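Example A, followed by Example B.
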Amino acid sequence: MQTSRKVLALAIAAAASHSTLAESQPTEKPDDSQAETAIEQVVVTGSRIQRSTFDTPSPTSVIDKESIKMTGELNLNEVLSTMPQFGEGFDSTSGSYSFGNSGLNALDLRNLGVIRTLALVNGHRPVQITSDSNIMISEIGMIPSELVERVEVLTGGASAVYGADAVAGVVNFILKDNYEGINVRTQMGTSEEGGGETSALTVTFGENFHDNRGNFAFSLDYFEQEPLHYRDRKSAAGRTRYIPNPENTGPEDGIPDFIIHNNITYPDFNISGNTFGVWNSELGGTDWFQLDGDQAQLRTPASAIMQGWMVTDGSGYDPNAYNFARSPFERLNGYSRASYELTDTLRLSADVMYSKTESYDEIDPDFIWSAWTTVEDLEANSIAIPSGVQQVLADYGDNWLEIPYTFSTAGPRWHNTEREYAAVSVSLEGEFANGWSWDTYLNSGFTDSVLTRGNNIRYDRIDTSTFSIIGPCEETGNCPEFSPFTPASQEVIDYLMVTHDTTTEVQQHAFAANLTGALFELPAGTVQFGAGIETRYENLNYQPSELWASGILSSQKTPIDDVSRTVHEAYGELLVPLLADLPLVQSLEFEAAIRGAEYSTEAANFTSWKSGLNWALNDSVRFRTVYSKAVRAPQLGEMYLGTSIGYSDLTDPCDSDEIDGGPSDGRRAANCAALGIAPDWDSNLKGQRGRVISEGNQDLKEEDATSFTAGFVFTPSFIEDLNVSIDYYDIDLSDMIARFGANNTMSLCVDSETINNDFCNQIVRAADGDVVSVRDTFINADGSRRTGIDIEADYQFSLADLTGLPGDLRLNLVATRQLESSYSSTDNLTGKLETIDYVGEYDVPKWKGDLTTSYSLNDFSMRLTTKYTQAGPIDLDGRAERYQNNIVPDSLYFNLWTGYQVTESTQAYLGINNLTDKRWTDHPYTSYGSNNYSLLGRYMYAGVYLNF
């Protein structure tokens, strides 16, 4: 019943307005005279064997160039990442505390991680770049968007053809060939409320030469995005949080344990100026005073503070004072391609790709943690105590005070990342006299990245327990004066704060050769064969600054010294027509592929394979299925990542405010008790950041995945231009290489059936229960599984034929129903496998759909897009009364694009994204923004295409 209601809701949304991107048919239907040439034989993603795009057994979504254009997006990542098949990969919101992910663009198919989605350009692997975890990813932001002919998205079944990393599937960017003419595109956009402005200019040129035997094309693309600050959106991010409900009387009283508050500030963090706290024994908390010279004034009373760190009356400091919701970055892409037909059967082509990206991010100023001290200790360290502070202490009859210190006069901690990417590839392809086709491919490239961090404290130059300046200045006797009661002078800032550079170098080289052709004839058709070899070399050299590696900053990184590996692979592929032209069997084909790989780092051989059936009953109905196995070897970064020590916001699930959370059967409390922690215990992490240790793992082994897809395609001859496909997918991943994150590790430790698990082994607690550190490293976890159903429907028709109204209409639906999105772990003591399925939680939607209506009349065209994401509860397993509004709202918003062909060579267009200005900042779980819950609000853009 619940499922049927959701289907009905999606259908109603479709009728109200329509969306989207994936389009598997050409915009204009060819007439009969063109039909033969329209269904030409091409290499379709998922196979090296040539065939029509309609004949592949693997479900493949195709996004054509017109659909890309009508999104108004300047970044290909923004086009794809909001589609139903994708989770949130790396995009413009991936900055802040990541130390360098801002400006990255990487796709996450089936929410299995960007490292399991293989992006290709013209069927070849591009040179990769690294994230801040030194994981190699395919950066799609450097692909020349104006030269993209189409994008093919294939789920599963691709590792046997394309090798590792295709666990979730493949996204193949097909570029235009033999491009002719000059195209200029310029666009600017801004949000109605301000922030996140974008602008772009693209110039594309192509020309044939030597009697059309040769072609040269290049594209130059500039893109700039301005920042969007959290502080510029009311109630966004840290200002909206759950706080303990003062009216709560117990876990089963029908009253929410936590309620939503929309005006949270901090008492002692992100502070501007100077502050100190005094203990209020009557309220059992700290009263906070603001210092202005010698004068002290009560700013935040203890009665307004929840859990020791959340101010509920708005009197504290803005948690969003610095961080970006969208990071600013600039990107310059250059791409050129030259091809030449040496003979009628031999073609040479070369590509050069260059990209330069500069991104910036900032977080709160560096600081000294709050600490309790006495008047006597301060005076012993020659720190003068302002008269206002002395008066407050006298009024309280106390000599203890709590002093935090934020170096606000230095400004925010910031990081700037410059990435330079260059790659060259050469292809030679031809055809033998017997009709067999062959090609060779050679590419070589590098990525150099420089991460510059600024305004970091050198902790070897200040004693944070005594607020004393120490270090080299002590020997020379010229240490600058410093007091926790006054703003830091420029001399102090110059002495303590540092700017330092970290470099990352990636080199990749590859050679591939492929051969395809017909083997022999069977009664049902021709048996086709494909085979190939590929050799890749990867090198990673990560060198953090000496200061960062030394451990004298607030965090620590260690280098990856020039590690490398080689990969040798070979594959074979077979397409066998089994039956043809029989009752209920217009054609039945079997295909199979196998790929062997040898990795030098693991000194092991891995095998991937696939098999599939493609059964056409008639011209209207086709069934298809593929079963495959994929293998992904651990990356260099996963194996050799150096030890990294830092501090993160952690929530201890055994804290008194959290112990009633977790699964509704109460196992969290029982497991915390097994750790020796009482139910009323207050964690040392409350209001503080915890120590996190990250590192690589050279003992990692490969992960395996089996994928199964089955579905049908319906193209009824009695309804012209209607195309429907429904496909089931099942991706089952074992020995998954994962790093769960410190917070998830802590929760999974006590939310599993017992504490005899690998997650608890990563947590170090003191005898009193305090968390000393959490180890967050790569491990071979038990597994993960994704199952679901993809639905695509496309229908185009003339309004004049049906209603007598002018114009043509096109309706397109792309939807995904997730059935399972689970992770599994094994109890180390009992050996029992426990699986947790997250489908239905707010960030793992059951339904996600895009619906599009496109209308065209002469020179005018318009597209209305509806994007729907079903949300759900915060925790499927938790108690319903744990949180107020524990059901996150659905995401439903509309994008409008309109274009007009002003002249034969000029098209102008306008667009509005989030047409109804939908906001989701009133809920803690959506207030940070994401692909489905953007903080931009209504966004408007305008642009023009000039063709010569």
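Example B, a separate protein, is given below in the same form.
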Amino acid sequence: MRHFPRGPLRGPALLAAAVALTAVAACSNGSPSGAGSPSPAPPGGTSPGTTAAKPSPTRTPTPSPTPTRTYPLSTAPRTVPAVRSHEPARGPGWKPAATAGVVLGADSAGLADEGRLLAGELGLRYRGEAAAGPGDVELALGGQGAPESYTLTVKDGRVRVTGPDEAGVFYGTRTLKQSVRSAGSMPEGTVTDRPAKPQRGLNVDIARKHFTAEWLEDRIREMGDLKLNQLGLHFSDDQGFRIESDSHPEVVSKQHLTKAEVRRILALAASRHITVVPEIDSPGHLGAVIAAHPDLQLVSATGRTPRGAVDISDPDAARIVDDLLREFAALFPGAYWHLGADEYVALMAKDPEASYPQLAAAARKAYGPSGRVQDLATDWLNDRAATVRPTGKTLKAWNDGFFAGGVVSAAKDIEVEYWTGKEYGARTPLPYLQAGRRLVNLNDEYLYYVLGEPNAFTYPTGRRIYEQWTPRVVRGTTPVPARYDAQIQGARFAVWCDLANAQTQDQVAAGIRLPLAALSQKVWDPRTPTRPWADFRALAAKVRG
């Protein structure tokens, strides 16, 4: 150890001592990691009998830098459907914390339902309109783009979800929820997302099989998380009429939904931005109505009474159906109404005019010598459309209810719901598209879940939809040309209950879970999926609920 000499210091010795004291002070204020310890000053700082040297001013030493944590560029969140764009960034991302909450931005009070729902799902506090604090999720209306688009940004430990409409912000909350479920967090960066198709959903035949309100509500919750926005309800058929009616209570089946239950379903659907599309199918599939009004039954020249077919030359048949249309169009506030029009048995005969002479006579009387039964059926469709049209709803009908070459043509504003090319009157998709009609895809090759698998139907698999089908595959397995893509409004997966007891409600729910997830991917994101099916299936199970 080095010691300073005793005795007075002068000249060069005094300067050397000052330098030494400066070095000691610098070392005592923090030396770099690995440096030796400085020698201590003698007790008292100076030796007895000496004059203390006045040290020179010293600079404040630079502290050693605290290591800064670095993050790799983030990757896109793992969700079903996949987000369409993610701008990566470096940062820790976001995780729910006990002190965090969900807040609403300025002029965004309309997002209260979305905010409360997300807060409950993630275990956060809902604070309403308030400034966002550390760890918070902020929901806000604003920005440009389609109504269902949104932007989700994770930065500085916070999440901000914005969109021009409440639906888009809701979908942003689904992305956040699913990412937390799949990975425990939401990655740093910005998601910019929107659907490829405006109509995306599930169709359920509740006429042949009664489904409880609770079951339908569970499907609505599942659909909302998958960013699906339509629930079709086919509630009238030969086997049953399944919603309470005030205008014609005599047609209602014993097992049915009350109007109170329907309103509850509608309220939940609205909270998930899902439109319920009701369908009263006619002039076929009216067996429940005919059971209460047997005088409306269509009768052939040989006395045959085809099930479910009303005599469309009888004004009473139109009157009762219109009563029901008016009643239920008022119950369902959504933007769509399905008129049915498929599989009218009279038009499935080899010679409709010979088989049903009363219909042929009515057609000639109305349209002249060239009038045929198909014209009478098309006029029926147009008249039912005229009944519903004043409500402002977009009208739909099955593709085999549109006929070519007749005196009468279907109204131009009726959307085609394309399901098959096998029935009488059904054509390939191209003629409908070439005529300029908008079309929704319910391809029976991929999207028909028919209970009991009759008529060569097999239960569709999610894997086949995920790997082979796209919205342009409207019939069979061949896509229509890309130039018609904009006319294809989207798709719905359909449950039909031909053999109603073949599966329970729970079995149906389990059977359609993966097909519905696969459909959601293909109608939201137009790109070919890069995730292998096994990974997608595992992810769908992880984010469910």
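On Example B: The radius of gyration is 36 Å.
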